[in-house]
């Protein structure tokens, strides 16, 4: 009798797990929940932007980081509610680390040595800022942090690479490293680029389950840089 009960109960385990996952997904895709998450997520960026404006000097690389933060705040507040969002806790943890690494950069970077002419770091930062603006505007309200299906965007920079925002952020990080080099700053900024690269792979492992995104990956073959990868 005990064996029978075990055999009957065993098939129920996947069903229970699937039901719980469906409940979490339904909760996370509720509009007010999604908006609350977005508002909470941008609070540190809003605070950091205010502190930066009040306390620190300006040059092109730092202004580029500020532009990145302000665009992130604005588009997050008005974003679309997702159709489906990842419930994988490791994806959420990676998202947390990658997203708030920019705040850590602001907080712990120190004045370093300029190792490239100002025009070089400034041009690179400007290129990153322009690309960031174009990518953010192309996304419109289809922006999120945790991997999620909102709407497929193929306009603007997304016609050429699949992750132009991560490319733009990396360019801005490199510009800041060139204008304030130290072993500490290099390690912090290099890790930021690593998180971008890892996040892009993780996002695609989730998004490619959508046939439209899988087809988009076939049409736009380059993840970051055309001809490179």
Topology readout:
Blueprint: H1 2-9, H2 12-28, H3 31-55, H4 60-77, E1 84-85, H5 89-108, H6 118-139, E2 148-149, H7 164-179, H8 183-207, H9 211-219
Antiparallel strand pairs: 1-2
Helix pairs in contact: 3-4, 4-6, 4-7, 5-8, 6-7, 7-8
Q: Could you provide a short overview of the structure?
A:
The chain is mainly α and 229 residues long. The protein has helices at 2-9, 12-28, 31-55, 60-77, 89-108, 118-139, 164-179, 183-207, 211-219, and strands at 84-85, 148-149.
What can you tell me about this protein's structure?
The protein is mainly α and 229 residues long. Helices cover 70% and strands 2% of the residues. The protein has 9 helices and 2 strands; from the N terminus they run ααααβααβααα. The chain has a two-stranded antiparallel ribbon.
Q: Report the sheet with the most strands, covering strand number, pairing sense and barrel closure.
A: 2 strands, antiparallel
The succession of helices and strands, N to C, reads HHHHEHHEHHH
Say what the CATH topology is. Four Helix Bundle (Hemerythrin (Met), subunit A)
Multimeric state of these chains? Answer: single chain
- Taken from the alpha-carbon principal axes, the silhouette is globular
* Helix segment tally: 9
Order of the strands making up the biggest sheet: 1-2
Class based on secondary structure composition and strand pairing? mainly alpha
**How much of the residues is beta strand, in percent?**
under 5%
Helix content percent band: 55-70%
* CATH secondary-structure class: Mainly Alpha
Distance between the termini: 59 Å
**Total beta strand runs:** 2
Number of domains: 1
Under the CATH scheme, the architecture is: Up-down Bundle
- Weakly predicted, low-confidence segments: none
Average the pLDDT over all residues and give the rounded result.
79
| Rg (C-alpha, Å) | 20 Å
């Amino acid at each position: 009798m005990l064996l029978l009960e075990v055999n009957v109960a065993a098939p129920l385990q996947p069903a229970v797990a699937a039901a719980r996952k469906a409940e979490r997904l339904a909760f996370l895709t509720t509009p007010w929940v999604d908006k609350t998450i977005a508002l909470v997520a941008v609070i540190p960026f809003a605070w950091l932007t205010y502190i930066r404006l009040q306390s620190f000097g300006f040059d092109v690389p730092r202004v580029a980081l500020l532009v990145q933060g302000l665009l992130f705040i604005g588009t997050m507040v008005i974003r679309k509610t997702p159709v489906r969002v990842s419930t994988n806790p490791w994806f959420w943890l990676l998202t947390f680390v990658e997203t708030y690494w920019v705040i850590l950069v602001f907080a712990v970077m120190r004045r370093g040595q300029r190792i490239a002419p100002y025009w070089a770091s400034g041009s690179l930062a400007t290129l990153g800022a322009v690309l960031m603006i174009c990518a953010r505007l192309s996304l419109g309200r289809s922006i999120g942090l945790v991997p999620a299906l909102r709407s497929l965007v193929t306009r603007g920079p997304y016609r050429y690479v699949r992750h132009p925002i991560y490319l733009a952020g990396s360019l801005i990080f490199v510009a800041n490293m060139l204008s304030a080099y130290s072993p500490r700053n290099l390690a912090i900024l290099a890790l930021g680029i690593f998180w971008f690269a890892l996040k892009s792979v993780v996002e695609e492992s989730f998004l490619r389950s959508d046939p439209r995104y899988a087809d988009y990956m076939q049409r736009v073959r380059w993840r970051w840089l055309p001809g490179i990868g």
